[in-house]
Amino acid sequence: MTSCSFLLIGVTFLSSILNTSAAFAVPSSSKLKPWPANTAPTSHDKHHSSKSQLYLANPNQPAYCEKCGTKTIIRQPPNDERERACCPDPSCGFVSYQNPKIVVGAICTTRDNQKVLLCKRAIEPCAGKWGYPQGFLELNETTRQGAARETLEEAGASFDPAKAKLMAVYNLAGYQVQTIYFVELEDEVVDAGMESSEVGFYKWKDVPWEDLAFPTVEWALLHAKDHVIPLISNDDADDSNIIVQERTKYVDEDGQWQVKEG
């Protein structure tokens, strides 16, 4: 999206606020839960208090209270260092704590490591692009179990979660953490699930490098090919010494995407 597009969206959003002031009216302070006397903003908090105690929820926070449905406001709760989406109803006062989503995935190879399992995405984002089995971690499962489940759901391939080796952790803009495992499959039985239009094993030279769904897909595939496989292929090597690739993708002060190791 171009900077002009972002500007147009911002202008449109601002106009909608100005034209619907009644719907977006900020609740009076009398409707807020009272602040304890010992929580007056300190010098450390001035950058928060300059724009709040309260202002309207932003797109990255829930617009309505998850418990009672009241429109939320953004403020810094007592004994907290961050601003949160808070319910202004004194009978509720629920504070929403938004945390990064956990994504799990698996780089699966044949037993000789000559081919890698790839899935062609049947859903957005990036429908029609290629990747490895991955998805959001579910409740009551470990990251290894989640990676095995996603592999079964998307590619019809199965493996023992205990045999999966951690190979990569990617932190994406503070909103998502990806945990990627490496595993050698016992067979080449696959079956495309609902989220995949095609699945199959591909020799490394045939990987569609120019048609991958996300940058993290390329990162993980290259790390597996260039570092993980050479290590585990060495009979004298200790598999526990696999170097876990850690990368962080973030937006710098100039609004540009950056990637750093670690």
TrEMBL record:
Domain Nudix hydrolase: 99-235
UniProt xrefs under SUPFAM superfamilies: Nudix
First and last residue of the signal peptide: 1-22
A single GO molecular function term of this UniProt record: hydrolase activity
Record-annotated membrane-spanning stretches: none
Keyword annotations of the record: Hydrolase, Signal
Protein name: Nudix hydrolase domain-containing protein
